[in-house]
Design a protein that fits this description.
This protein is mainly α. Helix content is 77%, strand content 0%. It contains 12 helices and no strands. The mean pLDDT is 82.
């Protein structure tokens, strides 16, 4: 058995191979050693080269399988493969944000705790999907109820104005789920809310966008993610049409 110091000296790729092997042993109820996977996660948390890519390769298939299983349990309705993949991506991004960084990693002293949080993120992604679907139904019903009232009623006008504000806030919350990086959030705010041009955003944030083309590319990628989320797509089209 390798000592901890020896495991720390392994190449990341070799560590990954050991992690995969030990995971298979664990699944087969054989003797397994969690230190290899834990060290791989630690390297990803501290940004060592290729560690995060290998962590993603190792755990994304199991997250996707759990997403499908939990979706059935929580009743998300009809989802296609792209929807499942987006939910899995949301779960892994959340895990990376709240676990795999130097500050947060100190709280996770074992592989079991780190993977338990990944499972929480996976369940959370599915629950968010269910909440979004329910929100969509509620928003549609509220819209129908408001429009059914007399347009001249002052109280009704105030309610509609408040509803409109709430609606915009809900859209921002849903769209922000697809903003995986700070660049996405800036594009959403400055391009779509403030109506700036890519060249203006590039000039405003030169360290993030070296050219207007980079802004446009970020915009396209964000829109693609939005289009793959049925609820976000529907609300987005309603919002931009207004």
């Amino acid at each position: 058995m390798l000592r901890d110091t020896q495991i720390r000296l392994l190449k990341t790729e070799t560590l990954f191979d050991h992690c995969v092997e030990q995971t298979e042993n664990f699944k087969k109820n054989k003797v397994s050693d969690s230190r290899f996977c834990y060290e791989l996660l630690r390297r990803a948390a501290y940004g060592l080269p290729n560690a995060w890519a290998l962590v993603y390769e190792k755990y994304s298939p199991s997250v996707l399988n759990k997403i499908k299983r939990y979706s059935h349990s929580y009743g998300t309705g009809q989802l296609d493969e792209a929807d499942f993949e987006d939910l899995a991506q949301n779960a892994i991004v959340a895990w990376h944000k709240y676990v795999l960084n130097p500050e947060c990693w100190k709280k996770f002293q074992s592989l079991e705790k780190a993977l338990a949080y990944l499972d929480q993120c996976t369940r959370g992604a599915v629950k968010d999907c269910v909440r979004s679907q329910k929100l969509n139904i509620t928003l549609n019903q509220l819209t129908e109820d408001k429009l059914a009232k007399k347009s001249g009623d002052q109280d009704t006008k105030a309610e509609i104005n408040q509803y409109s504000q709430d609606f915009d806030d809900q859209i921002r919350q849903i769209i922000n789920r697809h903003c995986q990086r700070i660049e996405d959030k800036i594009v959403f705010q400055y391009i779509f809310e403030f109506d700036l041009k890519p060249k203006d955003v590039s000039k405003e944030f030169p360290t993030l966008f070296e050219s207007p083309a980079r802004v446009s590319s970020t915009k396209r990628n964000l829109l693609k993610r939005i289009e793959r989320d049925p609820l976000a797509k529907l609300l987005w089209h309603d919002w931009t049409a207004g």
